[in-house]
Write a structure and sequence with these properties.
about 150 residues; mainly alpha; three-stranded antiparallel β-sheet; two-stranded antiparallel sheet; about 55% helix; rod-shaped
Amino acid sequence: MNKHMRRHLLLILIAALTWQLPAAAEELYRWVDADGKVHFGDRPPQDAEAKSIADELKPINFSDAAGEQDYPDNRRADQIAQEYRNQKRQQQQKQIRHQQLVCKRAQRQLKILKGRVYFVDAEGNETTVSERERQAQARALEAQIRQYCG
């Protein structure tokens, strides 16, 4: 055989072997040894029972790179995400309840303030408030109502 023919034959042999590689890599096995360690391989072991997991895997290269991958067991990740959503919802509900409470309190105080008003000091004595002070308090309450009541 001449040098040119050997090179040509070698290229054909390499192409044939390369063509066969994907078929050989399609099987993937998972097994647990006597010590409880998990192993993976392309051939099942002789001394342990192995499970083929090739059907559970998705190709590494796929066109939807931004999409979510579906892993065989992602229950814990789903649980964490659900807990996070629940916490956010509870925080939002707590904030809404607080705003409603502040709103109702400001509306009640404004209603009282706009009606016939007298104030009682710490000792229980009736005190007077100037009209200017009463209007300033009313404006402050109206600002609270706009802020918390929408």
